[in-house]
Amino acid sequence: MQTDIIIIGTGISAKLSALYLNLYGFNVIVFHNQEVNQDKSNLVTFLSSGSIKFLNKIIGENQALHNYEVIKQLCCVHHNQLDKDNFQFNFDNNKEDLLGKIIPNNKISELLDQLIHSNENINIISNEFINHLKHHHNHVEIITKSTSSISAKLLIVADGKNSMIKSYADFNFITHDFEQTALSITAKVERKSQNIAYQYFTSEGPLALLPYSKSHSSVVWSLKKHSQILNLSEKKLQDEINNILGSKVSGFEIVNFQTFNLSFSFAKKLFSKRIAITGDTAHSIHPIAGQGLNLIIKDIDCLTKQLIKYKSLGYDLGDPIALNEYNKLRKSDNVAYSFGTIILDEIFSIENKYVRKLTNSVLKSFNQSERLKRFFVDSATGYNNFKNL
Question: To pair with 369 at 20 to 30 A between CA atoms, which of 6, 18, 311, 339?
Answer without folding.
Answer: 339
